[in-house]
Design a protein that fits this description.
Blueprint (H helix, E strand, L loop, with lengths): L4 H6 L2 H4 L3 E3 L5 E3 L4 E5 L6 H7 L5 E7 H17 L3 E7 L8 H10 L6 E6 L1 H14 L3 E5 L11 E6 L2 E6 L5 E5 H4 L4 H27 L6 H15 L2 H5 L3 H21 L8 H15 L7 H20 L13 H15 L3 H8 L6 H26 L5 H7 L13 H10 L9 H7 L3 H11 L1
Parallel strand pairs: 3-10, 4-5, 4-6, 6-7, 7-10
Antiparallel strand pairs: 1-2, 8-9
Helix pairs in contact: 5-6, 8-9, 8-11, 8-13, 8-16, 9-11, 12-13, 12-18, 14-15, 18-20
């Protein structure tokens, strides 16, 4: 069957593995992941999968103590019993960060004749295994143990380097395996994190659409529609997801994997990551610097979504004729530098160097203001349609047992205000935070949110 835009939207995530098609957006989209298997008992079909994809017979399993107990040991025993040469790199405790120390540990365990890396776990383990496999020029697959985040099929790994979270563009897993009997047994906060990460697609899609107008960034209606479709299904099954029902768990995993597939198709994380992720990364960097264990990624992201939604509400309620963008003065830039140094500490020089050149002159701002106002009549209803997918995000977060406000994850008033002011510096990607700053609205919004915190 020929692959068309229409048939792409009708395919399941399993049917999207390995496809390539020319899209109406003008790009050719490819999914490098070759196989997705989500089913009861899938753990015991990994050996056959390795043979089917010709991935070799010498495999190193990367796991932590928790994921090894959940699935790693059973997988290692099954593979060894069927003739695979299994090596292990198992962190002795639950691994919360993908940082330089974790990467070096796995590289030390990597034997020269290893042919394949198998990540057994979720976000952090997947990020570590992807980075090592790319550097070692080895294929890798993922055996998922929890429906907690959307990075399974992603090609990027966010790594903490010198305390700064940097996303490296690497490679797709050759396959993703999710044994639903294992995934359903994951702690309930993992399901909550997965729902939080999916709800983040609301603001991420809004930010992508906004950037396509203001910055004329490439935008794909088909990929956005794929994400909206997945999000809609999850929103309507939140209670069943919390209850651990089989089909609802599979639906959540499919949505999370589809998010990664969307990133593969467009070549970056735009469909899945926006202002809410930048805020989450900022909080995570603070926790890491203070030596505190961070919340799960999806928990932090989910808690940031309602705040970003309030900024969108303020934007959509404004009269576009009042929108003004004014060039930053030297004094304002100096104040910004002082705030960056206060908030980012030893990372400040790198953040300033990365962002200082992004301040626009008045001519450049006028062009962007004209784009925004000129396209506002069609942009506003499109943004409202995305927001309407989940009219009450906080209620959904509470329904699935997730924190619904930043203070519920230990974020102080000052940390909330600073995140709103300065999380946009975490990555040079245009979001509603940049727009609010250009319109002169961000400072007062940050103060209002902190006062209500």
């Amino acid at each position: 069957m020929d692959i068309t835009v229409e048939t792409v939207l009708k395919r399941t995530p399993e049917q999207l593995a390995g496809i390539s098609f020319h899209c109406a957006c003008g790009q050719t989209h490819r999914v490098e992941m070759r196989k997705l298997m989500l089913a009861e008992g899938a753990l015991y079909k990994v050996h056959e999968l390795l043979r089917e994809l010709n991935l070799g017979g010498k495999a190193m399993i990367v796991a932590d103590s928790s994921s090894f107990a959940a699935a790693g040991k059973a997988l290692a025993d099954d593979l060894a019993g069927k003739g695979t040469d299994v090596r292990l790199s198992v962190f002795p405790e639950e691994q919360w960060y993908a940082d330089e120390k974790a990467l070096v540990r796995v590289l030390i365990d990597l034997e020269p004749d290893t042919e394949l890396i198998i990540a057994v776990g979720s976000g952090t383990i997947n990020d570590i295994a992807r980075f090592v496999s790319y550097k070692a020029k080895l294929p890798y697959i993922v055996v998922a143990t929890a429906p907690s985040m959307d990075g399974y099929a992603s090609t990027g790994s966010p790594i903490l380097v010198n305390g700064f979270k940097k996303t490296y563009s690497l490679a797709s897993p050759a396959a993703i395996v999710g044994d639903l009997s294992v995934i359903r047994q994951a702690p309930r906060d993992r399901q909550a994190a997965g729902v939080g990460d999916m709800l983040a697609k609301i603001t991420a899609l809004c930010d992508w659409l906004l950037a396509s107008v203001v910055e004329e960034e490439h935008y794909c209606e088909v990929i956005a529609a794929l994400m909206s479709k997945a999000l809609t299904g999850i929103v309507s099954h939140v209670q069943s997801i919390r209850d651990g029902e089989e089909q609802a768990t599979k639906l959540l995993m499919e949505g999370l994997v589809l998010s990664g597939i969307a990133m593969q198709m467009i070549g970056n994380s735009r469909p899945a990551s926006g202002a809410e992720h930048h805020i989450s990364h900022y909080w995570e960097m603070l926790h890491f610097a203070a030596g505190h264990r961070t919340e799960l990624h999806g928990i932090k992201v989910g808690a940031a979504v309602p705040i970003v939604l309030k900024l969108y509400d303020a934007l959509l309620g404004a009269d576009p004729d009042t929108f003004r963008m004014k060039e930053k003065t030297a004094a304002q830039i100096a104040d910004w530098e002082r705030d960056v140094r206060r908030c980012y500490g030893p990372l400040a020089d790198e953040m300033i160097a990365m962002n200082r050149g992004l301040f626009l002159n008045q001519t450049e701002l006028d062009i962007r203001r004209d784009r925004l106002v000129g396209h506002w009549p069609e942009l506003k209803p499109k943004l409202q349609a995305i927001l309407a997918i989940a009219p009450d995000v906080q209620a959904l977060l509470r329904q699935v047992g997730a924190p619904a406000e930043p203070k519920e994850i230990g974020v102080s008033r000052e940390q909330l205000a600073d995140a709103l002011r300065l999380a946009k510096e975490v990555r040079s990607r245009y979001t509603v935070l940049q727009l609010a700053d250009q319109l002169g609205l961000l400072e007062s919004f940050a103060e209002d949110m902190a006062a209500a915190h």
